[in-house]
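User: Modeling request: complex.
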Amino acid sequence: MADAATARRRTRGTGGGAARRAERTAVSVESARFIERRIPDFDILDDEALSLIEHGAETILQEIGVNFVNNPAALQLWRDAGADVTGERVRMPRGLARALIATAPSRFTQVARNPERNVEIGGRSLVLAPVYGPPFVHDMNGGRRYATIEDFRNFVRLGYMSKWLHHSGGTVCEPTDIPVNKRHLDMLLAHMTLSDKPFMGSVTEPSRARDSVEMCEILFGREFVAENTVMTSLININSPLTFDDTMMGALEVYAAANQACIVSPFDVGGAMAPVSVAGTLTQVLAEVMAGIAYSQLVRPGAPVIFGAFVTSIDMNSGAPTFGTPEAAQITYGAGQLARRLGLPYRSAGAFTGSKLPDAQAAYETSNSLNMGLLSGVNFMLHACGWLEGGLVSSFEKFVMDADQLGALHKLAQGIEVTEESMALDAVREVGPGGHYLGCAHTQAHFKTAFWRSDLLDYKPFEAWAEDGMRDTLTLANARVRKLLDQYRQPALDPAINDALNDYVARKKAAAPDAFS
Amino acid sequence: MADAATARRRTRGTGGGAARRAERTAVSVESARFIERRIPDFDILDDEALSLIEHGAETILQEIGVNFVNNPAALQLWRDAGADVTGERVRMPRGLARALIATAPSRFTQVARNPERNVEIGGRSLVLAPVYGPPFVHDMNGGRRYATIEDFRNFVRLGYMSKWLHHSGGTVCEPTDIPVNKRHLDMLLAHMTLSDKPFMGSVTEPSRARDSVEMCEILFGREFVAENTVMTSLININSPLTFDDTMMGALEVYAAANQACIVSPFDVGGAMAPVSVAGTLTQVLAEVMAGIAYSQLVRPGAPVIFGAFVTSIDMNSGAPTFGTPEAAQITYGAGQLARRLGLPYRSAGAFTGSKLPDAQAAYETSNSLNMGLLSGVNFMLHACGWLEGGLVSSFEKFVMDADQLGALHKLAQGIEVTEESMALDAVREVGPGGHYLGCAHTQAHFKTAFWRSDLLDYKPFEAWAEDGMRDTLTLANARVRKLLDQYRQPALDPAINDALNDYVARKKAAAPDAFS
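Assistant: Request completed. Predicted assembly structure:
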């Protein structure tokens, strides 16, 4: 903000009409620093309950075990570490997983190509990243349709333009018009060239994870990548208790390269996990402990995140449901479990099952975002744009949610209680029956006192009615167009840009297209 | 729920076609018991900050004081209690207000005419009451218009039909077609005859408070009212620091009759309170302490609630804003201050500044409802139906918000961690790679495991599309009509009903109409 203000003052100094026009149309691409909480976490469980769950998770690991599928090397690593391996089933003596996890860092830095956009993941921080994975997109103009690479690029542009988003994310939508075996190249190229925020790597094949590392070596330099974490990638566990070779193969590539992985069960209670909150928490903990312990077998010290994608199910339709009270309970509880393991925590997001960015979407999203902040989440994927249970990336909802993320920043600052902020002099000045609009304290602070939405309508009824009675969806549609119109690509060394494009062209030419 | 099930079984027993039709159309008017939290409160401030604010509030009371306007009897009570009274200004030695507050109960029961609907206010409880005060109503069919008594009655009927609403409220909208000096009679008659939930009394004149007590004496019996709290009424403080004779006159009537009052500053930061969160909290505390101390001067032991209606302002338009992070900070902080005084706490609500029940409305409302639960609110007015900064009662938003209140009930139950709920046997049964849909634990628990919305759409896209692609507003519109169609007036002793109607008729005949 300070930079933009300086730029405006400089422009004003030149005095000409063109300069004034430039000022009016100047685009300030502000990006907030990741959130550093100055408020406590909400601890829903007491120590006794947490200990019971931890004991239950160890029981699962010891008695039931987990499967590492199609992965003899992993089984050997487990055997060497002291686990009991039978077939593909790995059973761990009590305490083994926890002991292995001890080498994982509690906090790490993910570097962006613009160092001002570096993020700290862990501790009291909260890093916000956009929706991940939907095959469809939706907007007011075109409705629901399969996503293309141009949609993908537009979401990356919107993420770059979104002040409260710290991270460019990964598969912001699936570019279904690009062959499955080449999509990751175009996606990474978009994140690397259309934004300067940190991003995620591909996980759909170990070879694609290697491509991701190689493209980062072009962008950042080979030595830099060896010494720094430049990607945080999403490794899903096939719940219940199954680690498949695709995801583990990607994890192995990233852990070996000292790149970060979110190790994340995907647990819909009643389907992939018990139908109870305590049961889901116990299974989540067992799954995360096994996955993170394995990451440390691959490379002790590799940066990892305790992930928990958990929600409830509608037992009438079998559909997963979002923004529910049970999801909130699990998210709060899992945060406590992650902190007791000393690990960064990924959970929550702008979740909804709604088919439209309507009131249902906003209720469910707001429930999820609030619990995400208070549960101590350090990395929030899906923080904006998620629609229809993750099947759809919504353009309007992207900017609607991204606006709400601003409120999280302000809430996380906590309450400053000082002589100045308590403002007793203002109370004295105004006195009983007066008003504060003109008093000295208000004049000194009103510009920064309150968070203000860039999207929502604060006008009185009459002004709003004259303005066309627009609802939030209509306002968001206009904001999407405005942000995409204002978008300018951040500068990148042309040699690096060429090298990245060459790499992608070479890789694409080297293999036939595959669409499954 | 048990009663409805029993009724259904009885009907089934008769076996006839008419009985089966009756069963299919039977309306179960379930009403949830008030929430008893089994989760902790979110404490945003530490002890040092709270002590500073408490010290600041005492400084305000001692140095600046409060005005009791046009109320010589109140000034005399303050003088007798040891306050320094100059003109209408009352200054209290440090500790006086706090000492007087000590006689206020920390928890009380408000009795409803159906004793199953009695509510406990204070401690770990949360009682939910609908929107209060708007002169306008809004629905999809008629748009925005002045409220009438028939609108009022329909909101009372909707409140009666709303499972998660514990309280019928007060001025659910202003019946602008009834003379100002007679409205309270029709409003109370509606609450008393169209619902059996607890309700609020009139506060717009001391005489109307007396009418409210007299009508309660008809409904409950004179002796019963003398010994029980049957109304909880809303006494606003004219912030900053002013107690007018109308509101104090109503408080005096209610406190003398042992009826409950919410003593509630109405503080929009930057207008009626300092532009800072800490300043607003300090002023709120001073105002509530003065008001509640006064209630105890009127009658030691009179039931009261620490109220805080607080929000921020949009400094661009001067409009109050809702669901903002600053409002959340104040609500969390004020809850801690109320608990330290040992008083029940009123705050939060389904707040929004939006002109429509759209996504903005839902984001802002959900922010407010969640903070209301976690901040330890005991009485939440405006818990459903509030629109446009409190200018409008929305029919659709009433049922949308009322549905979300169900999620608060479930979240407040906390997480049960037991051998059964941890479900290790289910994990053993299912094992790695299995699924939980058919396992014994799921079969035993799926019906009650997860909260389910009665309004929101959980269908997959295709089914939803076939069904007309309805958004939340459209679904809510249909639900309003359905609930009003299904509504049946709860039984009331005809003699009491006649006596109430006679009282209203007599009072109306005794005075000319006044419209201002």
